[in-house]
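Section 5: illustrative case.
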């Protein structure tokens, strides 16, 4: 089944035989010359260095077919992408901040490895089976020190990239992420939204040229929308400052300011997922009584397991053990994936601006689409201390209760390594925990069916000591 088509490659949905799973395969339309083969290897190398992050699309393998066509095998994201989502829906500012903190964590992880994305936009933010936002399409990525990739998309590119005809750095990626996040609330890129009258009904190349001129010549205006509070607009404006030196110094700094704005306006904040960095900055943890995540009704952003790695799948073994499931890597399209899926409900189609492939799984599939037979994540996980600070109570709901359901929960984070390694089972949808001396207590919870199938991604929430 074809998922999408661009100027250089097609993307297909296949079912891999071993391990048995759906995958998305990007296959070049033409036989590859040496330069194109180098680009293919570059994309695979870039993705392989960073795709352990829970909000970066995984790559399973890459190679050249017997006929000289290049292919890359990716994690399949059945929820489509945010370009398709924005054609029929919007996020609230609160929901947008949660997604933004997720994506800024992923972007900082890439930047720390020396990788610049160069083309962040809604069509390159995919939605996986657990409704998590996934940064994808590093096909034009390059290293901070120079390398492949000069492309961009006008609506999401900062003025300096448009002036130079391509390229970019950490600051330009931060701009593009800010523009993408604003569109999740408004439905349009910032300058298309603010200067709609000047763009009029122009189409195609004419519209692109007008928009490019506006971005380079016009100021970024205030938006004055009641659904975007002033602290949130301030954060987005800083990320999209016309001058690169006025933007956030790093994607981590951007994430931290989003956490502060979310706490100020909504009384809670999402956690970052960055190796070696605190989930919640000290100033936020000090002022917050509760830190948990916001899950949009339409784009449910799955919460954390261990920071900086793909959330592990926990399984029962004699009702106690945790079994780590290792990712399989695919190096040949045939014979292991010689049949396409017949799951029409998962079909995604379409392409990005200019006919370019805009994501691995582009199209209009609702974000509610999941792989058949998957176990849902628990919902509404939250936690709070009692007034004395002697007990933390966590509760959640089961979106699809069935006979025999139980829940595996684990304390995560903190300095107590033994606590982080112990998993307990409960049939209840709430637990009480006697906390350690940490400033906050975080847990992850997974739903387990009677047949031992388990939700692919645990939910996570933190309670902050009063």
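Designed sequence:
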């Amino acid at each position: 089944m074809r998922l999408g088509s661009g100027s250089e490659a097609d993307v297909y949905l296949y079912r891999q035989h071993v391990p048995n799973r759906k995958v998305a395969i990007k296959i070049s339309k033409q036989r590859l010359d040496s330069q194109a083969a180098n680009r293919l290897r570059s994309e695979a190398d870039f993705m392989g260095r960073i795709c352990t992050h829970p909000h970066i699309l995984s790559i399973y393998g890459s190679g050249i077919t017997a006929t000289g066509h290049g292919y890359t095998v990716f994690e399949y994201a059945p929820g489509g992408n945010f370009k398709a989502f924005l054609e029929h829906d919007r996020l609230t500012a609160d929901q947008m901040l949660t997604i933004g903190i997720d994506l800024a964590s992923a972007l900082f992880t890439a930047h720390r490895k020396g990788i610049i994305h160069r083309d962040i936009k809604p069509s390159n933010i995919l939605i996986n089976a657990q409704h998590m936002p996934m940064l994808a399409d590093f096909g034009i990525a390059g290293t901070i020190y120079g390398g492949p990739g000069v492309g961009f998309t006008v609506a999401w590119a900062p003025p300096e990239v448009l002036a130079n005809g391509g390229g970019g750095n950490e600051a330009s990626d931060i701009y593009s992420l800010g523009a993408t996040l604003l569109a999740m609330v408004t439905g349009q890129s910032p300058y298309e939204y603010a200067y709609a009258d000047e763009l009029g009904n122009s189409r195609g190349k004419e519209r692109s040229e007008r928009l490019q001129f506006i971005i380079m010549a016009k100021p970024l205006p205030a938006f004055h929308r009641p659904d975007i509070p002033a602290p949130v607009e301030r954060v987005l404006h800083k990320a999209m400052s016309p001058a690169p030196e006025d933007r956030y110094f790093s994607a981590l700094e951007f994430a931290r300011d989003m956490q502060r704005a979310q706490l100020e306006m909504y009384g809670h904040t999402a956690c970052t997922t960055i190796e070696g960095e605190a989930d919640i900055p000290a100033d936020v943890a000090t002022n917050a009584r509760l830190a948990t995540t916001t899950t949009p009704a339409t784009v449910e952003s799955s919460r954390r397991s261990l920071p900086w790695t793909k959330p592990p799948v926990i399984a029962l073994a004699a009702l106690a053990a945790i079994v780590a499931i290792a990712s399989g890597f695919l190096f040949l399209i045939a014979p292991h994936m010689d049949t396409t899926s017949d799951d029409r409900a998962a079909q995604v189609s379409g392409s990005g601006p200019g006919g370019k492939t805009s994501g691995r799984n582009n199209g209009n599939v609702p974000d509610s689409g999941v792989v058949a037979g998957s176990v849902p994540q628990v919902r509404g996980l939250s936690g709070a201390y009692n007034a004395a600070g002697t007990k933390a109570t966590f509760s959640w709901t089961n979106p699809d209760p069935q006979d025999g359901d139980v829940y595996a929960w684990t304390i995560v984070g903190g300095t107590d390594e033994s606590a982080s390694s112990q998993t307990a089972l409960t049939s209840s949808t709430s637990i009480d925990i006697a906390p350690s001396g940490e400033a906050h207590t975080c847990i992850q919870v997974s739903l387990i069916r009677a047949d031992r199938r388990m939700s692919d991604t645990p939910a996570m929430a933190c309670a902050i000591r009063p």
